[in-house]
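User: Hey, quick favor. My workstation is busy. Could you predict this chain's structure for me?
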Amino acid sequence: MSRLQKILASAALGLIAVVAGLAWWLGYFSDSPDAVNIDAASAAVGENTTVPTSGDTTVPTDTAGGDTTAPTDTAPTDTAPTDTAPTDTAPVDNIDGTWTVQPNEDGTFVGYRINEVLNSIGDFEVVGRTGDVTGSLEASGTTITAVDLVAQMSTLTTDNGGRDRQMRSQALETEEFPEATFVLTSLIEIGSIPAAGETLSVSALGDLTIHGVTQAVEFPLQARVVSGSIVVVGQLSVDLADYDIATPSAPIVASVEDTAILELSVIFGR
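Assistant: No problem, here it is.
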């Protein structure tokens, strides 16, 4: 290898190192959040709604100071079934009425998952999410009669602020199209009232509007009744071109896939 070739090779390696270091600094190498799943969403409900009672036997306050003979240690109220019964095993009599979206940091959000290629570095999965979701679900007997969801696109965030700004200005154009919506267009018959904790798999036919464009979609969903709430999660593959969305660009980004995965995790409460 000639001296010039060695210099050029060293310069190329140095450039790659600089680009890689810049990518690390900008947050492009952060681990992606796990895909939505019904168990994680259900756990989020439990964490927000389950509060230990004073008789919870998992908190051995009666052994403080080494005293294990106090009569109150074995008082019936300490082991009463109602003290330790999980809230999500209560029977579900019906789901009739209107249920509204409940804010929940880990259980209510809408987002996307897409792959991008960084110059001289490789492929990475990008996940953007917003918890600014509102809407409702209506049910009668064993039929879901209506679902309306609205997500604020201007608050979608990933692990990188620069990427978020490009996504909002170049791709989603959130100043002009601040919201994405889903409206159910066909009844969902679930067959029977689910037991608490039972997972249902359904398909929701509806109108999905993103970037001001509405498309009819069939959204595969999983649902579960947990602690008096209805938990719903799902993923849907979306072609950006179907919604007139241009892939955002940046100097470090070589390309972005033209298909994204739309993710939904919503907790409904009465």
